[in-house]
Design brief:
Keywords: Membrane, Transmembrane, Transmembrane helix. The chain is mostly helical. It has one domain. 71% of the residues lie in helices and 0% in strands. α1 runs antiparallel to α2. The protein is flat, with a radius of gyration of 16 Å.
């Protein structure tokens, strides 16, 4: 980190597994928001749940693919 701010994070400091966790958490949050919205607007809530599931499941798949491409 070249910045003087101790809280700043350089993109190279983030490990791939950390990115996977962040994206999976985001997908879960989208899905939970969809579940809450589905009580008011069923179609929109179900769509959000679907997007959340896709985001949460694509994150580990992308990590495995990246590891295979790197040869690890």
């Amino acid at each position: 980190m070249s910045s003087s701010d101790p809280r700043s994070v350089d993109p190279s400091d983030i490990e791939p597994i950390g990115a996977v966790i962040a994206v999976a958490f985001t997908g879960a949050a989208i899905g939970l928001a969809g579940a809450a919205v589905s009580f008011v607007a069923v179609d929109f809530g179900v769509a959000l749940i679907g997007v959340g599931v896709v985001v949460a499941l694509s994150s580990p798949l992308a990590y495995v693919r990246m590891k295979r491409l790197r040869g690890e």
